[in-house]
């Protein structure tokens, strides 16, 4: 009609006015359902809006189309005719205001985005882009989604690498892939909406039943769910760390504790546990024990020290043990000590190598720095030891008695070792040491045999040979090959008992 040279602006406006009047006078009222009820229904896959396919709705939709088409004709006429009087412009503004007042009825009845795709209107006027009431707050929904996705990605970037601390991890891979996919699917357009003002529409929703007016809300809720999941996952890292430590322990002692593949896997689990929670003292202690078994003693000491700072009594005991063994190694290989052992008559009176070494502080200026360091480490943890369980407390008393024995202080050594033996007997009665009976490599930081072997030596130092023989017998029966010093003491026990 606008191309007809005999058509005037007045006729075009009159058509627009009449179509608009028909729309206003139509009594049809679209359903006005509760926003949250509809949103929940959409999330559950049960759409409840824009299902007005009854005759009244179809009639109203036709009138909407007539009005929009008339407005297109008016726009086309304005483009083709530059000279339009102020009174005509005022009339157009007045009619457009009336059309905007019908925006809610129009957008609740039809999806203008679909109409634009199908009808390909001649113009891109504002009347084809009327906003649904539920779209008016999409900016805030978009900002919320953007915040959720940014925080979630930040948490994922912090968490996921931890699962790779011990090498490729299935859990780490699943977490990384899942988080990345969700972020791309749910967060991309939300960030565009918040930061660049684009339409908050996801192509991935085009084939879904989720209405366009609710997609931004759905995106925000889903990214919010991802955010809550990541927060919960982040807060549970300490528990997951405990699980990895338990998993590593199970692998470390599987197959008798000598399966190299299982040990490598256990090391990986301990490293992941520490990466997830650097304060996991048990994981540090277990990793130290693994390093010690591989003779990586510097690494073992480092892990024990960290675990010790975390309150691990067992780490104190293990670290002290390494210092004591270090002293024994120095003395057995020292040429000066070898000379003393050959020449000093007092040393020749001692009946075992360990007792000869114990008497050395009285005969040489060479200070046993390792033993003193071990004593200080144990003594500083005495309050923690008193609050520990029986196994840890027994190990602490045993190690402390060992330091006293190394110093040649037999009376003090017996005080500590008697407490260790008492706790050992209580454990036997309560059958809490069954794990150690089943597996000699189970985590007995100072094994059951130590307290008897050491007390036997202290008793010999006091010349109580008969009592010492009883402890030598228990020392021999509880032989634990996981501790190298017990291999030496076992030979001594055989000699004392007359065993072949």
Stretches with pLDDT under 50, minimum 5 residues: 193-201, 333-367
Order of helices and strands: HHHHHHHHHHHHHHHHHHHHHHHHH
Shape: rod-shaped
Largest β-sheet summary: none
CATH class of the largest domain: Mainly Alpha
Question: What would the average pLDDT be, to the nearest integer?
Answer: 77
| CATH fold category name of the largest domain | Serine Threonine Protein Phosphatase 5, Tetratricopeptide repeat
How many domains make up the 3D coordinates? 3
What share of residues are in beta strands? Answer: under 5%
Helix count, DSSP H or I runs of 4 or more residues? 25
Structural class: mainly alpha
CATH architecture title of the largest domain: Alpha Horseshoe
Helix content: over 70%
- Compute the number of strand runs: 0
Radius of gyration: 42 Å
Q: Span from first to last CA? A: 120 Å
**Assembly state (oligomeric):** single chain
